[in-house]
Design goal:
The radius of gyration is 18 Å and the shape is globular. 25% of the residues lie in helices and 30% in strands. Helix 2 (75-89) packs across helix 4 and helix 2 packs across helix 5 (184-194). Strand 4 (96-99) and strand 5 form a beta hairpin. It contains 5 helices and 12 strands. Bound molecules: biotin (BTN). Biotin binds at residues 13-15, 39, 42-45, 48, 50, 59-61, 103, 113-115, 131-133.
């Protein structure tokens, strides 16, 4: 992948910065990385904001050109990126997992979030902006994010940000390069192995309904299939269901 690396002291959001760069200059090489010490308007999924104390954590975005991944299968990107991050974190502790679709958890707490924004040109994925926020050295969280945790809180010591970034980028490159239609099944298996609450009954909330269910499977388009206690099967898109933690 390319070596283009942009380090900003401060920016609104690395995803937005990368998007504006692509708009201005038309194209940027695959592998372009934008990283910042501080985001003034860090964005999360579902329109949420992303809190990250200045200089304490990793907040960055990577540009990919996944034209070899069919648009209907863009969930593969979520799987590859979250597998890559969990593989690195698992070297520090065993209790890391992927909370569907692509939050990274340690036990019942969230350590990292991923925001993927794609451009469709004709019928292929021309750009994917992969935004990643990983809590590394932050000790106190101000926002009302329900259950944040950092690597320093888990390991009891501070970590070198450039060193961790390099490990994460290498791991992402490895996972991304392994993709081919032939090994989708293998990727899916790894994702299921790392999945939070991949076994047993757990509580969920959909609309106003609370219920216990187990994860039956994840569809190639990323939808979550749950099996309720009574055996009935239900399909959920990302915004239609919350895990009760
Ligand atoms: C989430 O869990 O809601 C996704 C959080 C994604 C945060 C990262 S930080 C770097 C990149 N720039 C952003 O504005 N958001 C992503």
């Amino acid at each position: 992948m390319s070596e283009t690396f942009i380090h900003l002291n401060e920016t609104h959001s690395t995803n937005s910065y990368l998007r504006e760069l692509i708009m201005r200059e038309r194209e940027q090489p695959e592998g372009t990385v934008v990283i910042t010490d501080y985001q003034t308007a860090g964005r999360g999924q579902k329109g949420n904001s992303w809190e990250s104390e200045r200089g304490k954590n990793l907040t960055f975005s990577i540009l990919l050109h996944p034209s070899h991944i069919p648009p209907g299968k863009q969930f593969i990107l979520s799987q590859l990126i979250s597998i890559a991050i969990v593989k690195v974190l698992k070297k520090y502790d065993r209790y890391f997992s992927i909370k569907w679709p692509n939050d990274i958890y340690w036990k019942e707490k969230k350590i990292a979030g991923i925001l993927i924004e794609v451009d469709l040109t004709g019928s292929f994925l021309s750009n994917a902006i992969i935004g990643i926020g990983i809590n590394i050295n932050q000790k106190y969280f101000k926002s009302d994010a329900p259950n944040p945790v950092s690597l320093a809180q888990i390991t009891g010591k501070e970590h070198d940000l450039p060193e961790l970034l390099e490990k994460i980028l290498d791991s992402i490159t490895d996972e991304y390069n392994t993709y081919s239609p032939d090994n989708e099944e293998k990727i899916k298996q790894k994702y299921m192995e790392f999945l939070f609450r991949n076994r047993g009954l757990h509580p969920y909330l959909s609309g106003k309904e609370f219920f216990n269910a187990s994860i039956e499977r994840i569809e190639p388009n990323g939808q979550l299939i749950l099996k309720k206690e009574n055996g009935s099967i239900h399909t959920f898109a990302f915004k239609e269901i919350s895990f009760v933690i």
